[in-house]
């Protein structure tokens, strides 16, 4: 089978594969990404075991929350992407969580001072004012966030050279948290190596992590995908770097 046909078959398979939820099992054996050293899921589980009421914002398919071994008495999650809402409801039944569908960029539909703990893994956008509002005095916000320039090498492989990133810098998050009346008690950053072993893995990732190449479609970027397939075939896995930061803040 010639290289062009191999590329088209890999692309077609990835374009047809489901991308609902927030799990990355489809990439097993085809792509890898280092994990942050702080162990976000472990930190969440530890905090959850010590509170009465908790909220997970932008839960995705509920994958992280479902692994909490000792959930609090009141456990709630929000999700704004409709395909993920039902996935999250099924996933989170076992921990007794209520999943609330919300509008993108809308206010959190909860009363003031409702939660001891608010967590969020890779939120699309953190509304710091709303987060501070729903936290009880003494409550904690814990979040693993996507940092500035994450997967820049992959974005530029498709889009060409890009300007320096102006958003998602950790220091901006600290300033926004403090402006909302929160006190930042922990901030950590990590650069994580990612490898893509075939062009199908690239296509599936770009369909799922939509901010890497905004407006991505296979038809729109087919030539760039073919070029990247040839690069992977000739040189080995494509390497990019994910940026992550952990931020923890409390409401005084």
UniProtKB/TrEMBL annotation:
The keyword Transferase applies. Signal peptide: none annotated. It comes from Micromonospora arborensis. Gene3D superfamilies: Vaccinia Virus protein VP39. Residues 55-142 form the Methyltransferase type domain. GO terms for biological process: methylation. This is SAM-dependent methyltransferase. One of its GO terms (molecular function) is S-adenosylmethionine-dependent methyltransferase activity. Keywords: Methyltransferase, Transferase. It comes from the Bacteria.
